[in-house]
Amino acid sequence: MKHFGCPVLYLVFILLLHAFGSHADVTQISASNLDGVLKTKLVFVNFYADWCRFSRMLEPIFKDAAALVSKEFASTEVIFGRVDCDAEQPIAQKFSVNKYPTMKLFRNGIMTKREYRGQRTGEAIASFIREQLKDPVKEVKNLDEIYEIKRDKRTIVGYFDTKESPQYQNFDAVSKLLKDDCDFYAAFGEISKPERTSGDNVIFKPIGENNAEMVYLGSLANKDLLQAWTQDKCVPLVREITFQNGEELTEEGLPFLILFHSKEDTESLEAYSKEVSRLISFKTAVNFLVADCETFSHPLHHLGKSVKDCPLLAIDSFRHMYMFPDFAQIGEPNKLKQFLLDLQSGKLHREFHHGPDPNENKIESKTPGQVST
After folding, report:
1. CA R_g for the chain
2. Euclidean distance between CA atoms 101 and 51, whole angstroms
C-alpha cells in the first residue's frame, strides 16, 4: 500500500489544487453554457480563432490576466471567458465579431458597446477589469456638491431614501452600463430629503450652464425604462466621428448618416441637428454623425468631392456611400427622411448599381392627376 500512497496523495493534491484554483481558469464558452456564463455580474470574453497568430499570442496573456483578477475578486463577481469563433459562429455573429482576437465586456448579461482596446499585457487587462468593478456612482455628503457640479459633461443625479431600495439598485445598474457616457451622482436619506418632496427621483444635467435640467418622469422600479431614458440623455443623437472613434462607431453595426462640414460652419450643423431631431425614430437604425471636412478630405475624394464642396451629406452603409442630392434641400419636408427610407428599402443600393428607376422618372414627369397604366 505504501508503494501507491505517494502517487495517490499527489493525485488528490493536484485535483484539489485544480478545484480551488478553477475560478482562475478561462471558461470555454459555447452555445450550451453561454446564457449561464453571462448571468455573472461581469464577464470578459476573448473571441479568437485558432488559425490566427494574434489569437495564439493573446492566449497566455489572457490567462495571466484571469489569474491576477482571481486573486482579488470572486468568480461570482467576474469571469474570464473565451469563444472559438470557428466552432461557435452563431455566437460570433450575435455579438458582431469580425476580427480576431476581439475582447468584449458583458455586464449583467448585456454587452457594453466599447470593446477592449488597451495594452495586451496581463497587468493592463487586470487593471481594466479593476476599473470596471469600481462603483461609478459618486455619493455626495451634502447637496452643495451637486449644485456646484461643472456642466462640462452630461450628468445624471439620483435622490434616494436608501441604498438598499430597488429604485437605487436599478439606478446603480444603469450607471454601470453608461458610465463612459455620463457622470453619476447620488444622495441618500436626510441629505437627499429636500429634493425628495414627491419621493425618490432622478434628474439629467445637460452640458452648459444655461441648459435646463430634465426630470425622469417614469417609474424608477422599471429598470428598462430608466435605462432607455438615461441612454437617450447620455448618448447624444448627433455625434462627431474622428479617426480615434471611427472603428468604435463602426462596431455599433449601424450605417452612418454623415454631415461633412468645416468647423467654422455652425449654420449647417444647426440645420442638420434640427432636421435630425425630427428623425429620432431612426435612432436605432442609423448613426447620425458629423465630420470635419479637412480631417476627412481623403474619404471625400473617393466621393468625387473636396473640402470646397462642404457642407454635404452622405450615407455610409459599409458597402457603399450614397450622396444626399443637395444639402440646400435638407429643410424640405420629409426630404431627409425619404433618403433614409430609400436606404432601408434598398432603393439607394439598386440605383447605385443600375441608375435611377426609369419608371419612377416617368411617374414624376406626369402632370398632377395622371395615373400610370
Report:
1. 26
2. 11
